[in-house]
Amino acid sequence: MKLIIYTSIFLILSNFAFADIKVDKCDNIKDDRQKTSCLNKLKLQAIKENSKKKINIIEGKLAKTHKKIGKGVKKTEKGITNVAKKVQNTKKKIDEKGRKIRKNIDEKVSNFFKKRRNKIKEFNKRKK
Q1: What is the pLDDT of residues 8-34, one digit of tens each?
Q2: Which of 1, 49, 54, 57 has the lowest CB atom count within 10 Å?
Q3: Number of C-beta neighbours around residue 57 at 10 A
Q4: CA separation for the pair 44, 51 (Å, rounded)
Q5: pLDDT band at 1; cut points 50, 70, 90
Q6: Which is nearest to 26 in space by CA: 59, 69, 1?
Q7: Residue span of the structural domain in which 16 resides
Q8: Is the CB of residue 38 less than 8 Å from the CB of residue 3?
């Protein structure tokens, strides 16, 4: 009789300790980080319960979430690459414009000095 009572108490306590895991608990969460965290917690509970079916279901959901996060990361990386290319092209254009301006200034300055030098030579020739 005692054995039956102890067995029933043990079964009742073990049911509370290993409650059924609701695999769909995390489906309504929109934020990917929170969803991943929730799924990891569920996976830990499923491992404690030693339920391979639930572990496989949760791992599938985790894989889908990771793929979704990966796509977002790829889009961000492409955007960053495009911005970097635009910045590089703009930098090249600015450098080219700067070179043209410097070349113009150099030519004007050298022409100015040549004219002055020629005027000085002419002045010196007139003196003689």
Answers
A1: 666 565 554 555 677 788 888 888 888
A2: 1
A3: 18
A4: 11
A5: low
A6: 59
A7: 2-127
A8: no
